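Record 1 of the preview.
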Amino acid sequence: MKVSVILPAAGLGTRMGREKSGISRKQFMLLDGEPILLHTIRKFTHCPSVSEIVVALRAEDLEWGRGLIHQQHLPKPIRFVEGGDSRQHSVENALASLAPDTDLVAVHDAVRPFADSELVEKVIAEAAHTGGAILGIVPVDTVKRVHKTKIRDTLPRENLVLAQTPQVFRFDLLKRAFESARRDGFTGTDESSLVERLDEIEVSVVMGSDRNIKITRPSDMELARLFHAEEMARQTAS
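->
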């Protein structure tokens, strides 16, 4: 089974704030002296089911990305494609670069560097069985549906999940989902929302982890440093 991982990393990361040089791209911020993107890539190179990793970068960052990986001598093939102005466009560009014999595609946020390999293997196995699966966690806070500043409803948490990545789908199914979205001018918040529109399968949810954080704000970096230090300590102990 051929499994390709797509890491959309062409975003500008505006929520991370501005630096003197302009907008800070969160995937290039340093964690223990290395870009977050590199930490994320490494996690997938250690997943047995993963065949290749495709990173979508802005055109001006492609040379930097290739140079970064060239120095690492990683055990899985890493390729770079030019990303688009949106996550959806970047993933679609990466999909177009995949070989026809690809079976499953896993799309993962480039700024989630703590994806556990065991969970990755579980969500890949579930998608191989059902056609599509995502990681998700049950919210711990009460969720309200509002209109402007007024509460309209309280949603039962047992029927809710917070979607994480990777999100894994059959290659042919995901391609059709993106083609349909482009025809209809639909922009989704994640890959699952595009697949759900096709109404061909029921997307499964594999329980994720609260450690699988997405680094989107400066305050997230403190937690990321803590998690990384814990990982390094475990590796040293073993």
